[in-house]
From TrEMBL:
NCBIfam families xref list: TIGR00149_YjbQ (TIGR00149)
Record-given protein name: YjbQ family protein
InterPro entries, per database record: UPF0047_YjbQ-like (IPR001602), YjbQ-like_sf (IPR035917)
Signal peptide span: none
Amino acid sequence: MEEIRIETRQRQEMVDITGPVRAVVERAGIREGLLVVYSPHTTGAVTVNENWDPDVQRDLLHFLAGAVPHRHPDFRHAEGNSDSHILTSLVGPSVTLVVSGGSVRLGQWQGIFFCEFDGPRRRSVWVQVVGT
């Protein structure tokens, strides 16, 4: 298992971590198997989405902010970041991907993203590669 460290700069943003994840797979020397990318944070998630056009990330964050507003009169969590916890649960803490031929298998336009919902912060994701 390896840890990738991330410095986020905004309250909500998507950080492309595809390159660092690919490097972990290369170091592991696994030719065929599975890869798990996991966020140990209750206000940060991991997803796979398009990494070619940054407007996709902007649109996703914009939609999520509209679906789960930052402030809501019914939120009771004292830290004021209930939206961040909800968004993390909706997006999810991890992704499982295929490793084949010694590489992470992604579609042509896909990338792996850490989703920051309560930044800016110092974050990390844990990457585990299993296989032969």
